[in-house]
Structure formats: structure tokens, C-alpha cells
Amino acid sequence: MLLEVRQLCAFYGPSQALHGLDFTLAEGGIVTLLGANGAGKTTTLRAISGMVHTTGDIRFEGQSIRGRAIEDIVRFGIAHVPQGRGTFVRQTVEENLQIGAMTRRDHAAIAADLERVYGYFPRLRERRHQQAGTLSGGEQQMLAVARALMLRPKLMLLDEPSFGLAPLVVQELFSILRTLNSEEKVSMLVVEQNASLALDLADTAYLIETGHLVMTGAAHDLRNDENVRRAYLGY
Asked: Smallest Cα–Cα separation from 123: which of 169, 80, 157, 167?
């Protein structure tokens, strides 16, 4: 397993947000976390990235990463694309992408990866000298994913990638994510409010309610579960 999470609890001050989560993600796989707003999905991504206080164990490629500094977790090859995109609005598109490679020292490979990323996101190439803050919402989301790719990640943590985007942009973005997984073998842990999208993308799904893991299985099995269909798919 690429990622193993055991008895994960997370805390914001005295308040406990996660209660003993157990899940795994295989190398090359896509896992989605389903649940209502406030269920603990975003907190789970933050816990893996070292952004909140946790107990339990988080192992990446067999090595414990719980309690490590955020920058150390990034160096392991874990890229976090947060909700709200998090672009550096006053920097150009290309400067944002170069920031994504800050932890790397292989300058020739960085230049090659820049061209590779532009191949996936041709609109970003067209706007490479444009300030990121002037991009559309969809372009900013693509920039956030592209910047994460500049890390050459083994695992991408994606928090609500479709949020606020037009349906055609969402379709394009998720098509790119599928290609990155199949061609680049980038593993993904996806939090997505649109459960239908998430289940189409993922191999495995976990359902979280009030910080507790209540259901797990193959994505197509959860799609066919009557309770999931009624609560999260609307039919």
C-alpha cells in the first residue's frame, strides 16, 4: 500500500474532528472520501499533510509521517491541492508553476516538467505570463493541479476540485485527472461534494459521517448502495 491510515484521530484545539479512521490507498489507485459538509473529509486531507494535531498512525510507502513538518511531507511526494485553489494571485502562471517545484534541485528536469504540464493544460501555456489572479475559476483550479504536478508527486490530495466550476470545465478537469492517473501513475485521494463525479473517478470509496468511517467498498458498489444513492446521489 502507498498510504496506510490507522486509528486516525484529529483535533482542532479541544474539539475532536476525526474518530479512529482506518483506510488504505494502493499505489496507482484513486480513493474518494464521501460525506456531508462537516463530516471530516477536508480534515482527513489536512491530517495527512500535517496541518492539524493528530493521533494514530499515517504511513506512506511504509514509513510513518504523522507528526512530521508539512515541508517534509511534501518532500515525500505528497501534493495537497486545497479547496479554494490557493494560487498566488499576484504571480504569473509560470511563476506559480515554478513555486510548485521549490523543493526540487533538478533544474533541467524542472524545465522539462514545465513543458509536460503545459501539454496537459494548454490554456495555461497560453496564459503563462498572465497574473494568476486574472484567470477564470476553472483556469485557477487547473493551475492549482498543475502546480502540484510540478512536485512530481506520488500522491495527490485533491479537496473539492469541481467546486464552483462550470460543468464543461469540470468534465475537462476530471478527464485530465484520469489521464494523469493512467499515464503518470499518480495516486489520488479525492474529496468531492459531487458524489457521482467522485465515484466515476475512483476505484475505492469511503463514507465518513461526523468524523467516523461508516462504509467502505469498491466505488461501483457504493454507487449501487440504496442508502448512498438516496443520500448522496439524489435518486
From this structure: 169
pLDDT over threshold 90, residue 137: no
Predicted local distance difference test score (pLDDT) of residue 213 = 96
Work out whether strand 3-12 and strand 187-191 pair parallel, antiparallel, or are unpaired. unpaired
Give the 3-state secondary structure of residue 80. Answer: strand
C-alpha dihedral (215, 176, 95, 116), degrees to nearest 10: 130
> Coil, strand or helix: which one is 1?
coil
- Higher confidence at residue 193 or residue 156? 156
**How far is Cα 200 from Cα 131, in angstroms, rounded to an integer?**
33
* Cβ-Cβ contacts under 8 Å for 159 (sequence gap 6 or more): 41, 42, 45, 80, 81, 82, 83, 191
212-218/53-60 β-pairing = unpaired
CA-closest candidate to residue 198, choices 17, 39, 20, 35: 35
Half-sphere exposure of residue 146: CA atoms within 13 angstroms, side-chain side: 29
C-beta contacts of 59-68 below 8 A and 24+ residues apart: 59/1, 59/3, 59/4, 59/5, 59/6, 60/2, 60/3, 60/155, 61/2, 61/154
DSSP notation for 120-167: H-HHHHHTTTSBGGGS-HHHHHHHHHHHHHTT--SEEEEE-TTTT--H
Question: What number of residues does the chain have?
Answer: 235
Report whether pLDDT(86) > 80.
Answer: no
